[in-house]
Amino acid sequence: VKHLHEYLTSMRTVSLERIQRQEDALEEHREIVKAMEERCTEEGEEKARVHVQKAREAFLRSGMIRSDAE
Fold first, then answer.
1. Alpha helix ranges (H) inside 1-70
2. Of 36, 39, 42, 70, which alpha carbon lies 20 to 30 A from 30's?
3. How far apart are CA 46 and CA 14, in angstroms?
4. Which is more confident, 12 or 64?
């Protein structure tokens, strides 16, 4: 669990280094919360999946980890 926490912290730090990613992530969070408030579970789940995928892509582009190292 400790390693997972360290990995997620690292991923968050690296993926948010770019200002545009920060802005995009904030908007993605707003969309997720809106879907939750409207009780649109499928939409909220899809928006959360897209958000995680975009964060992962930003992390991989940073060069911190290779995409085939899963």
1. 2-15, 19-37, 41-61
2. 70
3. 23
4. 12
Residue 46: both structure tokens together: 């899809």
Distance (Å, rounded) from C-alpha 6 to C-alpha 41? Answer: 29
CA dist 66 to 46, 56, 59, 63, 69, Å? 25, 11, 10, 7, 5
pLDDT at 28: 96
**Closest to 58 measured CA to CA, from 19, 6, 4, 1:** 19
Closest CA to 65 of 1, 5, 15: 15
Confidence tier at 26 by pLDDT (50, 70, 90)? very high
Q: Which of these ranges, 1-5, 21-25, 38-42, 64-68, has the smallest mean pLDDT?
A: 64-68
